[in-house]
C-alpha cells in the first residue's frame, strides 16, 4: 500500500516510491529506494515536504525489494551466425543475473587515490601501448598478442582492486583523434570498476577486462570516412558500421587463449535489453552479464567523449541518459549499480557547495556517496584559490559559522572555464 508521509516523519528502512517533485534534478538516481543513511534522510527533508512510501504486500514484491535478490533462469548457450562468422557461446559470463539486491561487499580501498595514481599512470601508459600494438597486428593480419593483452589487463585489474578512482580519473584524459583506441581502454576501466563494485573476483574481472579492451577491434575494417563522419550515417553506412561486431569476432576467433566469456563483450556490447540492438538481436538476460555491462560502459564513454559529430556531455548528464534508458536499452539493476559505482557526484564533476565555493570532485566516498572529496577552485566570491584547497566532506561537515557544508548542485561542463583534468590529484 502507498502512504503519504511528511518528510520529518521518515525513518531509515522506509521504501520511498514517489516524491512531491520530479525525480530528475534530485540526487536520487533511483525512482524508488529504501532509506539507508542519515544523508538520504537529510536530502529528502531538504528537498521535499512529503513523499509516498510503500508498505505491506506491495513492498514485499520482488520487483520492489532490493534486499532480496531475484535471479533469472540461466541463459542458454547458442550459435550466433552472421554472414560468414559463426560464434559459438560455450561459456556465459554469468549463470544468474540479479534483478534486485545489494552486491556482495568484497573490496575496500587499499591505497589513497593520490598514491594509486602514481602506479595507475604507468599502467595506463602500458595499456595504451598494448592496444596500439594489438590494433596494428590486427590491421596487418597478424594474430592478436593475447599474453600481452592479458598481462596489461591483469595490471589494470590489480589497480582497480586497490582503488578504482585512479584509473577512472585517467579516463578523463581524452584525445578526439585517438578515439577508437583509447575508447577501448576507457571502456575496459569502466567495466572493471563496475565489476569490482559487483564483487567479482580477480579471475572474472580479468576476463571481463580482456573482452572490454578488445571490444571494438572490428572497427579496423570500417572505412575512416564512416568512422569520422561529422554527420549522421546513412542507412547503408550504418549497416557497414554494424559489421564491426562480427568482424571483431572473426579477428579473434583464431586467437589463442581468449575465453568465450571475453568474446561475449566483443559480440554483444551493442545488444540492447529490449532486443533493439545489433548484431544478433538478443534481448534481456540472454545477452549475458558481460554483454550487458559492456553496453553500459561503452555508451557512457561515448556520451562523455568529444566525437566528430557531437560534443561531450558531463558525467552526470551521461548517467541520467543511461538511467532513462534502463529497461529499454540497459539492464535496470546493472544500470542502478553503475550509477552507484560512479557515484551521485562522479569523479571530475564540477560542483557548487552550499558555501558558494566551486570545486571538482576528485574522489568518491563509497561509504557516504553524498560526501566526496572536492578540490575547491573558486571562493564564494568566485575568486580562484591558488593552489586549489582539498576539502573532504566526510570530515569537514560544517563551516566556521556552524552551518552544514554540502554539495548544492552540479554545474555544466566547462562552467567558469574549469577543466577537471587540471585537478587530477597526482603528486609531481
Produce a short descriptive summary.
This protein has helices at 38-47, 57-60, 113-139, 146-162, 165-170, 179-197, 202-213, 224-227, 235-242, 244-252, 260-268, 289-303, 315-324, 332-342, and strands at 2-6, 15-19, 33-34, 50-54, 78-82, 85-89, 350-353, 358-363, 373-378, 384-392, 407-411.
Helices and strands, with pairings:
Elements: E1 2-6, E2 15-19, E3 33-34, H1 38-47, E4 50-54, H2 57-60, E5 78-82, E6 85-89, H3 113-139, H4 146-162, H5 165-170, H6 179-197, H7 202-213, H8 224-227, H9 235-242, H10 244-252, H11 260-268, H12 289-303, H13 315-324, H14 332-342, E7 350-353, E8 358-363, E9 373-378, E10 384-392, E11 407-411
Antiparallel strand pairs: 1-4, 2-3, 2-4, 5-6, 7-8, 7-11, 8-9, 9-10
What does this structure look like?
The protein is of the alpha+beta class. The chain folds into three domains: 2-60, no CATH class; 78-342, Hypothetical protein af1432, CATH 1.10.3210; 350-423, no CATH class. Helices cover 38% and strands 13% of the residues. The protein is built from 14 helices and eleven strands. A five-stranded antiparallel sheet has the order 10-9-8-7-11, with no helix packed on it. A hairpin with a 4-residue loop joins strand 7 (350-353) and strand 8 (358-363). Helix 6 (179-197) packs antiparallel against helix 7 and helix 7 (202-213) packs across helix 11. The longest helix has 27 residues, at 113-139. Mean pLDDT is 84; it is low at 57-92.
Amino acid at each position: 500500500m502507498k502512504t503519504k508521509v511528511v518528510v520529518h516523519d521518515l525513518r531509515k528502512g522506509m521504501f520511498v516510491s514517489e516524491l512531491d517533485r520530479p525525480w530528475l534534478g534530485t540526487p536520487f538516481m533511483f525512482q524508488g529506494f529504501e532509506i539507508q543513511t542519515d544523508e538520504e534522510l537529510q536530502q529528502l527533508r531538504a528537498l521535499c515536504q512529503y513523499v509516498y512510501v510503500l508498505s505491506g504486500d506491495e513492498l514485499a514484491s520482488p520487483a520492489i525489494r532490493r534486499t532480496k535478490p531475484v535471479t533469472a533462469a540461466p541463459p542458454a548457450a547458442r550459435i550466433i551466425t552472421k554472414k560468414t562468422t559463426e560464434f559459438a557461446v560455450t561459456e556465459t559470463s554469468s549463470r544468474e543475473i540479479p534483478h534486485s539486491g545489494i552486491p556482495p561487499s568484497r573490496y575496500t580501498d587499499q591505497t589513497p587515490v593520490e598514491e594509486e595514481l602514481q602506479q595507475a599512470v604507468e599502467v595506463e601508459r602500458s595499456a595504451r601501448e598494448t592496444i596500439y600494438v594489438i590494433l596494428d597486428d590486427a590491421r596487418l593480419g597478424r594474430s592478436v598478442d593475447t599474453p600481452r593483452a592479458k598481462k596489461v589487463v591483469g595490471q589494470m585489474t590489480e589497480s582497480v582492486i586497490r582503488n578504482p578512482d585512479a584509473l577512472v580519473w585517467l579516463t578523463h584524459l581524452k584525445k578526439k583523434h585517438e578515439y577508437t583506441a583509447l575508447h577501448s581502454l576507457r571502456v575496459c576501466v569502466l567495466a572493471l570498476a563496475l565489476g569490482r563494485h559487483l564483487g567479482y573476483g580477480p579471475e572474472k574481472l580479468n576476463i571481463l577486462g580482456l573482452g572490454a579492451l578488445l571490444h571494438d577491434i572490428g572497427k579496423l575494417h570500417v572505412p575512416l570516412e564512416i568512422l569520422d563522419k561529422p554527420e549522421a550515417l546513412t542507412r547503408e553506412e550504418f549497416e557497414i558500421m554494424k559489421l564491426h561486431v562480427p568482424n571483431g569476432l572473426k579477428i579473434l576467433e583464431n586467437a589463442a587463449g581468449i575465453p568465450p566469456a571475453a568474446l561475449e563483450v566483443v559480440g554483444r556490447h551493442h545488444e540492447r535489453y529490449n532486443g533493439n540492438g545489433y548484431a544478433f538481436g538478443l534481448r534481456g538476460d540472454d545477452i549475458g552479464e558481460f554483454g550487458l555491462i559492456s553496453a553500459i560502459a561503452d555508451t557512457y564513454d561515448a556520451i562523455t567523449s568529444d566525437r566528430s559529430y557531437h560534443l561531450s556531455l558531463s558525467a552526470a548528464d551521461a548517467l541520467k541518459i543511461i538511467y532513462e534508458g534502463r529497461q529499454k536499452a540497459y539492464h535496470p539493476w546493472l544500470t542502478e549499480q553503475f550509477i552507484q559505482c560512479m557515484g551521485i557526484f562522479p569523479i571530475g564533476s564540477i560542483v557548487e557547495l552550499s558555501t558558494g565555493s566551486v570545486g571538482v570532485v576528485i574522489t568518491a566516498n563509497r561509504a557516504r556517496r553524498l560526501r566526496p572529496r572536492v578540490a575547491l577552485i573558486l571562493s564564494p566570491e568566485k575568486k580562484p584559490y591558488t593552489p586549489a584547497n582539498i576539502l573532504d566532506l566526510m570530515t569537514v561537515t560544517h563551516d566556521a559559522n556552524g552551518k552544514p557544508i554540502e554539495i548544492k548542485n552540479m554545474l555544466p561542463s566547462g562552467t567558469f572555464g574549469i577543466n577537471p583534468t587540471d585537478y587530477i590529484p597526482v603528486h609531481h
